[in-house]
Design a protein that fits this description.
The protein is α/β, with parallel strands linked by helices and 255 residues long. Helices cover 45% and strands 15% of the residues. The chain is built from 8 helices and 7 strands.
Protein backbone atom coordinates (compact mmCIF):
# COMPACT_ATOMS: atom_id res chain seq x y z
CA UNK A 1 0.00 0.00 0.00
CA UNK A 2 1.27 3.47 -0.88
CA UNK A 3 2.49 5.48 2.09
CA UNK A 4 -0.05 8.18 1.32
CA UNK A 5 -2.90 5.67 1.76
CA UNK A 6 -1.99 3.91 4.97
CA UNK A 7 -3.33 6.75 7.11
CA UNK A 8 -6.55 7.01 5.08
CA UNK A 9 -9.80 6.74 7.05
CA UNK A 10 -12.11 7.93 4.28
CA UNK A 11 -15.52 6.21 4.40
CA UNK A 12 -14.75 4.37 7.65
CA UNK A 13 -17.66 4.24 10.08
CA UNK A 14 -16.36 5.83 13.29
CA UNK A 15 -18.37 5.86 16.53
CA UNK A 16 -17.27 8.40 19.14
CA UNK A 17 -18.78 8.52 22.62
CA UNK A 18 -18.86 11.81 24.47
CA UNK A 19 -18.77 13.61 21.11
CA UNK A 20 -20.76 16.63 22.23
CA UNK A 21 -17.91 18.54 23.86
CA UNK A 22 -14.26 18.58 24.81
CA UNK A 23 -11.83 16.08 23.34
CA UNK A 24 -14.68 13.92 22.04
CA UNK A 25 -15.88 16.77 19.88
CA UNK A 26 -12.30 17.28 18.73
CA UNK A 27 -11.98 13.63 17.67
CA UNK A 28 -15.29 13.91 15.80
CA UNK A 29 -14.14 16.99 13.89
CA UNK A 30 -10.85 15.27 13.07
CA UNK A 31 -12.53 12.22 11.58
CA UNK A 32 -15.16 14.30 9.80
CA UNK A 33 -12.42 16.35 8.17
CA UNK A 34 -10.58 13.18 7.15
CA UNK A 35 -13.54 11.80 5.22
CA UNK A 36 -14.88 9.28 7.73
CA UNK A 37 -18.57 8.87 8.50
CA UNK A 38 -18.89 9.97 12.11
CA UNK A 39 -21.49 8.61 14.54
CA UNK A 40 -21.55 11.18 17.36
CA UNK A 41 -22.86 9.63 20.58
CA UNK A 42 -23.67 11.08 23.98
CA UNK A 43 -26.40 12.00 26.41
CA UNK A 44 -27.07 15.60 25.31
CA UNK A 45 -28.64 15.63 21.86
CA UNK A 46 -28.38 19.40 21.44
CA UNK A 47 -24.61 19.31 21.96
CA UNK A 48 -24.24 16.36 19.58
CA UNK A 49 -26.22 18.20 16.92
CA UNK A 50 -23.80 21.12 17.19
CA UNK A 51 -20.91 18.75 16.55
CA UNK A 52 -22.74 17.27 13.57
CA UNK A 53 -23.43 20.75 12.16
CA UNK A 54 -19.76 21.69 12.48
CA UNK A 55 -18.70 18.54 10.63
CA UNK A 56 -21.27 19.04 7.90
CA UNK A 57 -20.38 22.72 7.52
CA UNK A 58 -16.83 21.61 6.72
CA UNK A 59 -18.11 19.16 4.09
CA UNK A 60 -18.09 16.03 6.25
CA UNK A 61 -20.68 13.40 7.11
CA UNK A 62 -22.04 12.78 10.59
CA UNK A 63 -25.13 11.84 12.56
CA UNK A 64 -26.06 12.21 16.23
CA UNK A 65 -27.05 9.21 18.35
CA UNK A 66 -28.32 9.71 21.88
CA UNK A 67 -26.93 7.16 24.32
CA UNK A 68 -25.89 6.71 27.95
CA UNK A 69 -22.82 4.52 28.49
CA UNK A 70 -23.86 3.84 32.09
CA UNK A 71 -26.85 1.88 30.76
CA UNK A 72 -26.03 -1.43 29.07
CA UNK A 73 -29.35 -1.46 27.19
CA UNK A 74 -28.54 2.00 25.84
CA UNK A 75 -25.09 0.80 24.72
CA UNK A 76 -26.60 -2.16 22.88
CA UNK A 77 -29.20 0.09 21.26
CA UNK A 78 -26.50 2.53 20.17
CA UNK A 79 -24.35 -0.07 18.44
CA UNK A 80 -27.42 -1.58 16.79
CA UNK A 81 -28.54 1.83 15.57
CA UNK A 82 -25.12 2.56 14.07
CA UNK A 83 -24.79 -0.83 12.38
CA UNK A 84 -28.38 -0.67 11.13
CA UNK A 85 -27.68 2.77 9.67
CA UNK A 86 -24.32 2.02 8.06
CA UNK A 87 -24.03 -1.76 7.85
CA UNK A 88 -20.91 -2.02 9.98
CA UNK A 89 -18.73 -0.36 12.62
CA UNK A 90 -15.07 0.16 11.77
CA UNK A 91 -13.73 2.27 14.64
CA UNK A 92 -14.78 3.00 18.22
CA UNK A 93 -13.29 5.98 20.03
CA UNK A 94 -14.26 5.03 23.58
CA UNK A 95 -14.07 8.57 24.89
CA UNK A 96 -16.96 9.25 27.30
CA UNK A 97 -15.59 10.25 30.69
CA UNK A 98 -16.50 11.92 33.96
CA UNK A 99 -14.65 13.50 36.87
CA UNK A 100 -15.70 14.91 40.23
CA UNK A 101 -12.74 16.37 42.09
CA UNK A 102 -12.78 15.57 45.81
CA UNK A 103 -10.25 14.84 48.56
CA UNK A 104 -9.85 11.11 49.09
CA UNK A 105 -11.27 11.25 52.63
CA UNK A 106 -14.44 12.95 51.36
CA UNK A 107 -15.31 10.64 48.45
CA UNK A 108 -18.75 9.12 48.96
CA UNK A 109 -19.98 5.81 47.56
CA UNK A 110 -22.31 7.80 45.30
CA UNK A 111 -19.46 9.82 43.76
CA UNK A 112 -17.33 6.69 43.47
CA UNK A 113 -20.12 4.88 41.60
CA UNK A 114 -20.82 7.87 39.34
CA UNK A 115 -17.22 8.04 38.12
CA UNK A 116 -16.74 4.28 37.89
CA UNK A 117 -20.00 3.80 36.00
CA UNK A 118 -18.83 6.03 33.15
CA UNK A 119 -15.05 5.70 33.06
CA UNK A 120 -14.62 2.01 33.80
CA UNK A 121 -17.89 0.09 33.56
CA UNK A 122 -19.19 2.23 30.70
CA UNK A 123 -15.94 1.98 28.75
CA UNK A 124 -15.78 -1.78 29.33
CA UNK A 125 -19.26 -2.60 28.07
CA UNK A 126 -19.12 -0.04 25.26
CA UNK A 127 -15.98 -1.74 23.97
CA UNK A 128 -17.51 -5.18 24.43
CA UNK A 129 -20.58 -4.33 22.35
CA UNK A 130 -18.50 -2.67 19.64
CA UNK A 131 -16.16 -5.67 19.51
CA UNK A 132 -19.09 -8.02 18.99
CA UNK A 133 -20.20 -5.96 16.01
CA UNK A 134 -16.67 -5.76 14.59
CA UNK A 135 -16.18 -9.51 14.95
CA UNK A 136 -19.20 -10.08 12.71
CA UNK A 137 -17.79 -7.91 9.91
CA UNK A 138 -14.15 -8.99 9.90
CA UNK A 139 -12.42 -6.66 12.34
CA UNK A 140 -11.96 -3.08 13.40
CA UNK A 141 -10.20 -0.66 15.70
CA UNK A 142 -11.00 0.21 19.31
CA UNK A 143 -9.35 3.29 20.80
CA UNK A 144 -9.75 3.64 24.54
CA UNK A 145 -8.98 6.93 26.24
CA UNK A 146 -6.63 7.05 29.21
CA UNK A 147 -4.97 10.05 30.85
CA UNK A 148 -1.92 11.29 32.70
CA UNK A 149 -3.81 9.76 35.61
CA UNK A 150 -3.28 6.34 34.05
CA UNK A 151 0.36 6.64 35.10
CA UNK A 152 0.64 9.14 37.96
CA UNK A 153 -1.47 10.06 40.96
CA UNK A 154 -3.30 13.38 40.84
CA UNK A 155 -4.45 14.87 44.14
CA UNK A 156 -8.21 14.88 44.69
CA UNK A 157 -8.68 12.54 41.71
CA UNK A 158 -8.35 9.16 43.42
CA UNK A 159 -11.35 7.56 41.71
CA UNK A 160 -10.62 9.11 38.32
CA UNK A 161 -7.00 7.95 38.39
CA UNK A 162 -8.14 4.48 39.43
CA UNK A 163 -10.40 4.26 36.38
CA UNK A 164 -7.79 5.60 33.99
CA UNK A 165 -5.18 3.17 35.29
CA UNK A 166 -7.73 0.44 34.68
CA UNK A 167 -8.16 1.58 31.08
CA UNK A 168 -4.53 0.72 30.36
CA UNK A 169 -4.94 -2.83 31.67
CA UNK A 170 -8.29 -3.23 29.94
CA UNK A 171 -6.67 -2.21 26.65
CA UNK A 172 -3.96 -4.84 27.04
CA UNK A 173 -6.32 -7.68 27.90
CA UNK A 174 -8.74 -6.77 25.13
CA UNK A 175 -5.85 -6.75 22.64
CA UNK A 176 -4.87 -10.28 23.73
CA UNK A 177 -8.37 -11.67 23.27
CA UNK A 178 -9.57 -9.77 20.22
CA UNK A 179 -6.50 -10.10 18.01
CA UNK A 180 -7.77 -13.32 16.49
CA UNK A 181 -10.79 -11.41 15.18
CA UNK A 182 -8.60 -8.76 13.48
CA UNK A 183 -9.56 -6.16 16.07
CA UNK A 184 -6.71 -3.92 17.21
CA UNK A 185 -7.18 -2.30 20.62
CA UNK A 186 -5.04 0.64 21.70
CA UNK A 187 -5.35 3.70 23.90
CA UNK A 188 -4.48 7.37 23.95
CA UNK A 189 -3.34 9.06 27.16
CA UNK A 190 -3.78 12.81 26.70
CA UNK A 191 -2.06 15.24 29.03
CA UNK A 192 -3.52 18.65 29.76
CA UNK A 193 -5.87 19.94 27.08
CA UNK A 194 -8.34 22.79 27.53
CA UNK A 195 -11.76 21.18 27.90
CA UNK A 196 -14.83 21.84 30.06
CA UNK A 197 -13.33 19.38 32.57
CA UNK A 198 -9.96 21.15 32.80
CA UNK A 199 -11.09 24.77 32.28
CA UNK A 200 -11.02 25.52 36.05
CA UNK A 201 -7.33 24.53 36.17
CA UNK A 202 -6.55 26.70 33.14
CA UNK A 203 -8.40 29.67 34.63
CA UNK A 204 -6.55 29.43 37.96
CA UNK A 205 -3.21 31.25 37.39
CA UNK A 206 -1.37 29.33 40.11
CA UNK A 207 -2.60 25.92 38.99
CA UNK A 208 -2.01 26.76 35.32
CA UNK A 209 1.57 27.88 36.03
CA UNK A 210 2.25 24.67 37.95
CA UNK A 211 0.94 22.55 35.07
CA UNK A 212 2.88 24.43 32.40
CA UNK A 213 6.07 24.22 34.47
CA UNK A 214 5.85 20.41 34.31
CA UNK A 215 5.31 20.20 30.55
CA UNK A 216 8.62 20.27 28.63
CA UNK A 217 6.85 21.98 25.72
CA UNK A 218 5.43 24.54 28.20
CA UNK A 219 1.99 24.67 26.63
CA UNK A 220 -1.35 22.90 26.79
CA UNK A 221 -2.40 20.55 24.03
CA UNK A 222 -4.94 21.30 21.31
CA UNK A 223 -7.31 19.07 19.34
CA UNK A 224 -4.85 19.23 16.45
CA UNK A 225 -2.21 17.62 18.67
CA UNK A 226 -4.44 14.55 19.07
CA UNK A 227 -5.45 14.35 15.40
CA UNK A 228 -2.33 12.53 14.21
CA UNK A 229 -2.29 9.87 16.95
CA UNK A 230 -6.02 9.10 16.74
CA UNK A 231 -5.94 8.87 12.93
CA UNK A 232 -2.91 6.57 13.15
CA UNK A 233 -4.71 4.22 15.53
CA UNK A 234 -7.84 4.21 13.35
CA UNK A 235 -6.07 3.58 10.07
CA UNK A 236 -4.27 0.65 8.47
CA UNK A 237 -0.99 2.27 9.51
CA UNK A 238 -1.53 0.68 12.94
CA UNK A 239 -2.58 -2.80 11.78
CA UNK A 240 0.37 -4.38 13.60
CA UNK A 241 -0.02 -2.23 16.71
CA UNK A 242 -2.24 -3.51 19.51
CA UNK A 243 -2.30 -3.33 23.31
CA UNK A 244 -0.35 -0.06 23.27
CA UNK A 245 -1.02 3.29 24.90
CA UNK A 246 0.28 6.41 23.18
CA UNK A 247 1.02 9.30 25.53
CA UNK A 248 0.15 12.72 24.09
CA UNK A 249 1.27 14.95 26.93
CA UNK A 250 3.88 17.41 25.70
CA UNK A 251 6.54 15.33 27.43
CA UNK A 252 5.13 15.45 30.99
CA UNK A 253 5.58 11.72 31.64
CA UNK A 254 9.14 11.71 30.28
CA UNK A 255 10.36 13.26 33.53
Amino acid sequence: MAASKIFDVADKIVLITGAGSGLGQGYALTFGGAGAVVACAGRKMAALEETVKAIEAAGGRAKAFQADVTDRASIAALVKAVTDEYGRLDVLVNNAGYENIQPFLEVTPEVYDDIMSVNMKGAFFMAQEAARAMKETGGGKIINIGSLGSYIGLAESSVYCSTKGGIIQLTKTMALELGEFNIQVNALAPGYFITPMTQPFYDDPKHRAWIESRIPLHQWGTNEDLAGPVLFLASSASNYVTGVTIKVDGGWLAS
